[in-house]
Amino acid sequence: MPTYACDLAAVRAAAERLKGAAHRTPVMTSATLDRLAGRRLFFKCENLQKVGAFKYRGAANAVRKLSDTDAAKGVVTHSSGNHAQALALAARERGVPAYIVMPKTAPAVKRAAVEGYGGQVTLCEPNLADRERAANELVARTGAALIPPFDHPDVIAGQGTVALELLEGVPDLDALVVCLGGGGLVSGCAIAATGVKPGTRVFGAEPLGADDAARSKAAGEWLPQTGPNTIADGLLTSTGQLTWPVIRDLVERVFTVSDDEIRAAMRLVWERMKLIVEPSGAVGAAVALSEAFKSLPGLAKVGVVFSGGNVNLDKLWW
After folding, report:
1. Residues designated catalytic
2. What is the number of H-type helices and E-type strands within the chain?
3. Residues 6 or more apart whose Cβ sits within 8 Å of residue 102
4. What domains lie within the chain, and their CATH numbers?
5. Could you tell me if 233 and 81 are in contact, meaning their C-beta atoms sit under 8 angstroms apart?
6. Element (H, E) at 177
7. pLDDT tens sequence across 81-135
8. What angle do CA 79, 47, 212 make, to 5 degrees?
9. Environment class of residue 109 by beta-carbon count within 10 Å: exposed (0-12), middle (13-18) or buried (19+)?
10. Using H for helix, E for strand and C for coil, what is the string for 230-275?
């Protein structure tokens, strides 16, 4: 068996570590979406998680696992938003500093939230090289621990608790549909789901304008993201060195959806389920409702993750 960044035992340990910290988010259903999808859908509502996204799980697991000596120096990350908020909150809860590098183009609502949680924001140019350079400079200056948004064993293990909880609530699921950008959520969920219930099928959901994982799966090798362009701003990142092997081996297929399909799914969830999901958070639902996914046989019950609900309400999404 291949060795991945974490295993089921690490996900279960993360679940214990997060008890009393992370919300155990509800699983919700919709008869309307079931009818449109042609099967039963079970939505894991991580839009209702602390900071409004699943990212809190991975960040809090990583921060809580640090030794007292290491934690006292603080934590560093680079993130466009949700992980930045999550790490700032997790650090505040432990009483340690959080140094957050954010691109200048990050949504104002997300920057304000990071600062509200006590994060010390450093702005950089909106590219991965500049983000990493700024983060490395902070690590060198402060001695703080670098906790990246997805390519970290403790972050992946924390995200895997989403699938652990979902399968505890709905143990007879046939498959999971999980959105992916860097791949921390889908890889953690794949490790957890296939570990708890071998034979569970795991599918990735990706915007057509940021489809590096789909292209990588088709090519059978890791292909980096090039010029992503999508309204799903949380899914612009390439998969990582730790997440790609899991996606390669444990994710059956990555489906892509257009921005119009994402908008339609987002609006449908707002209107019919009365749940606020951000564009990235609606990608899984868009895939579940797509003709390509509906054509797959043998899937009666499918879990779908609403990954986040941090939207800029001044923007006319429709």
Report:
1. 55, 80
2. 14, 10
3. 78, 79, 80, 81, 84, 110, 111, 114, 121, 122, 123, 124
4. 8-54+153-306 (3.40.50.1100), 56-146 (3.40.50.1100)
5. yes
6. strand 175-179
7. 789 999 999 999 999 999 999 989 877 877 888 999 999 999 999 887 898 899 9
8. 50
9. middle
10. CCCHHHCCCCCCCHHHHHHHHCCEEEEECHHHHHHHHHHHHHHHCC
